[in-house]
Design goal:
Rossmann fold; alpha/beta; 7 strands; 208 residues; 5 helices; single chain; 7-stranded mixed sheet
């Protein structure tokens, strides 16, 4: 793990504090009321979602491949949801059997996975028939001028934000992975730089 990876993990919660207070925390809470049954969260980071999983969750499994993040995640799990399983696995190689989960959660993580189509294929594989993907992601802007700036600044964004891409058309990629989009809301990631402000919040199910 690089020095910057350790610094990024150590400062992540403070860096997002304004954004969380500006509406992201409320978005997390509202979305996760829909989590049911056997739940898998991809790239759980420092555990920002843990407080919002409700009584409908039968079991909770978290993946986090970054060791500095995982250490902070384990401390928060011990505090809020003891007994939760944590797997040090990337989204592209999930160590779970087919049809293992009823809900998969992704919040501000699909921007960073190295191979998004492969990661979405893995998510689809581990979801049981009728299962749901719940997501909050910052995405490529609909506005052409802002999208142009996202393209120009993405190399800088990737370096500063530890692999995060600001210009991914994530909704299109979800559809391309044979998911059917259900609810979808467009919003703004408040108190964030303009290139990462366009936000989508939604649900998807595996297409027939």
């Amino acid at each position: 793990m690089s020095l910057w990876g350790r610094v990024f993990a150590a400062t992540y919660d403070r860096a997002l504090a304004g954004t969380e207070a500006g509406g992201l925390r409320a978005r997390r809470e509202a979305l996760l009321t829909a989590a049911r049954g056997r739940v898998l969260e991809i790239g759980a980071g420092t555990g920002a979602n843990l407080a919002f999983y409700g009584d409908g969750v039968e079991s909770l499994t978290l993946t986090e491949p970054e060791a500095p993040m995982a250490r902070r995640l384990r401390r928060r799990v011990d505090e809020l949801r003891p007994g939760t399983d944590i797997a040090a696995a990337p989204a592209e190689r999930l160590p779970f059997a087919d049809d293992s989960f009823d809900t998969v959660v992704c919040t501000l993580v699909l921007c960073t996975v190295g191979d998004l189509p492969r990661a979405l294929g893995e998510i689809r594989r581990v979801l049981a028939p009728g299962g749901r993907l719940l997501f909050i992601e910052h995405v490529r802007a609909d506005d052409a001028r802002l999208a142009g700036w996202q393209d120009r600044l993405n190399p800088v964004q990737r370096r500063v934000a530890h692999g995060c891409n600001c210009n991914r058309d994530t909704v299109a990629q979800i559809r391309a992975a044979a998911f059917e989009i259900g609810d979808l809301e467009h919003d703004t990631l408040h108190k964030a730089p303009p290139i990462i402000r366009p936000l989508v919040v939604g649900t998807a199910t595996t297409a027939a």
